[in-house]
Design a protein that fits this description.
Length: 251
């Protein structure tokens, strides 16, 4: 369980998260929706303990991570894998070396074992042909796949975290990445690897998540399934999710 209890986070006098509270089971498929600058990336950083809140508690698996040391946080981070916005690959490393990076740094596995694991992941993500290429030689969609493979390399997380995974991709490639994301989190709870996707693209969120939260002015103003999201009477949220109605059939 990932729980935020009255979390406050400010940058200077700009309050980004304002007594934010929610609970998410590791195996859930949740989309946190919100406009640019509402604090979506900030929430992911808080879950990983990369930043600490000014007030409130963040409880992961029953433990309050806001009081943990860096070494204790390392174990918490192992429960998750994150795919950063834009993929954030290492430009100077080949696909193989990008995917192998964490294994080489942290796993203590032999080069042969690493190669085997990298190949298995690359196969799973359908990017075998790209294994010796550099990131700049790949299409946007391929880059995202490599980023997902790299984030999975460190182990099997309880929950995947995706920060705007389809930004900058054309609609067809976005569809493709969404299908991949959904497939990685298929299966039944509690064995399923869950996901939290933060995005402003509602139609993509609809393809991968079963639970939707709307972040506005530092608070969750909506939390429910697709049916209740479509039925919301909040005029601002209705405007935000408008694309669900205008591109009917796309989700
Ligand atoms: N390191 C930082 N210093 C100052 N302000 C920041 C910093 N990081 C984020 N912010 C501000 O916090 C707000 C939320 O940022 P972010 O979580 O990145 O939003 P989102 O991911 O929803 O676009 C934004 O207004 C952003 O400008
Ligand atoms: Mg962001």
């Amino acid at each position: 369980m990932i729980e935020f209890r009255d979390v406050v986070l400010s940058y200077g006098d700009h309050v980004v998260l304002d007594r934010l509270s929610f609970r998410i089971n590791f195996y859930e498929r949740v989309a946190i929706l919100g406009g640019s600058g509402e604090g979506k990336t900030t929430i992911l950083k808080l879950i990983l303990g990369l930043i600490r809140p000014d007030e409130g508690r963040i409880i992961i698996d029953g433990q309050d991570i806001t009081v943990m040391s860096e070494s204790e946080l390392r174990d918490v981070r192992m429960k998750f894998s994150i795919v950063f916005q834009e993929g954030a690959l290492f430009d100077s490393l080949s696909v193989r070396d990008n995917v192998a990076f964490c294994l080489r740094e942290y796993s203590g596995l032999s080069e042969e074992e690493i190669e085997e694991r990298v190949r298995a992941l690359i196969r799973r993500l359908g990017i075998e042909d790209a294994i010796d290429l550099m990131p700049e030689e790949l299409s946007g969609g391929m880059q995202r796949r490599v980023a997902i493979a790299r984030s999975l390399a460190a182990g099997r997380p309880k929950t995947m975290l995706y920060d705007e995974p389809t930004t900058g991709l054309d609609p067809l490639t976005s569809d493709n990445i969404c299908a991949m994301i959904k497939e990685l989190s298929s299966g039944e709870p509690p064995d399923r690897m869950g996901l939290i996707i933060v995005t402003h693209k509602v139609s993509d969120a609809a393809k991968v998540a079963d639970r939707f939260m709307y972040l506005k002015n530092g608070k969750i103003t909506f939390d429910g399934d697709m049916k209740s999201l479509k039925e919301t009477t909040d005029p601002e949220l209705r405007a935000f999710i408008n694309e669900l109605f205008t591109i009917e059939g796309r989700c």
